[in-house]
Amino acid sequence: MKLLGVLGNPIEHSRSPEIHDAFANISRIDIEYRRVLVDEGKFEDVARAFLSEGAHGFNITVPNKQDAYEFADELSHDARRSGAVNTIQRMPDNRVVGHNTDGAGLVADITLNLNWTPKEKKILIIGAGGAVKGVLGNLLETDPIGIDVVNRTHQKAVDIVEWINDGRLEAKHFDELDSGYDIIISGSSAGLKSNSLAPALPDQIVNEESRCYDMIYGSRLTPFLTWCRARNCREYSDGLGMLVEQAALAFNIWFERQVETGDVIRRLRGLL
Questions:
Q1: Could you tell me the pTM of the whole model?
Q2: Are residues 116 and 224 in the same domain?
Q3: Which residues, 6+ apart, have CB-to-CB distance to 28 below 8 Å?
Q4: Annotated catalytic sites, by residue?
Q5: How far from each other are the two terminal CA atoms of the chain, in whole angstroms?
Q6: Total domains present in the chain
Q7: 29, 51, 151, 220: which could join 128 in a potential S-S bond, CB 3.0 to 4.6 Å?
Q8: Which of 91, 42, 37 is nearest to 67 (CA)?
Q9: Are residues 27 and 89 in the same domain?
Q10: Do both 30 and 56 map to the same domain?
Q11: How far is residue 207 from each of residues 125, 132, 138, 182, 228, measured CA to CA in Å?
């Protein structure tokens, strides 16, 4: 049996055990997948204790992705580029390799599950926190015309654009946003609050060809997606597919098994 888990705080809400149990059943691999609570300032202690139990690897959720970045002995390209780690891989010689599968998971959901085409499209990203930092590099690899980044605190948008350092990225104020973006992605936790983000967004960013995506998910349409639908966007989706796709990539890192995600996404949707 392979011991796995997800570390973070809070952790009781995590769907990772259900997702990875489903992948393990598909792959006929025997696993034990735990939710592991990390008290503030205790990530390294908890991570080392979990590894000492023989953990094969583990996932990391908020607020510990930066802690995991610093904990890893080595970093993948995506982890180094994003400055965060959401997957730890334990090597046979006990080296700890940190990966970030969030960006690739988002791109997989958008391109494979939703059949959206970011190539040569104009993209708007709302938010400039760790979630956005983790996906910008992968989105740029899809060859968009450009990506605008907007955030309530403008300097944070500037900082994230400078970190990624790609000429197709531009930090903008809300009153500088273009009309009719092809794809609009919200990576802001403010989208959880019904009146916190939407009023700041100018109506013209959405038109009848716009596709809108929220990286968060829930049992109901998120406030951001409700706002987009009211402005007659063409399509919209929450981030449940991203959650499953990034988990599938982590599972492949651990076991070199590519798993079918469609049934797992549908099953998880039914549980919400």
A1: 0.94
A2: yes
A3: none
A4: 65
A5: 29
A6: 2
A7: 151
A8: 42
A9: yes
A10: yes
A11: 16, 23, 25, 8, 9
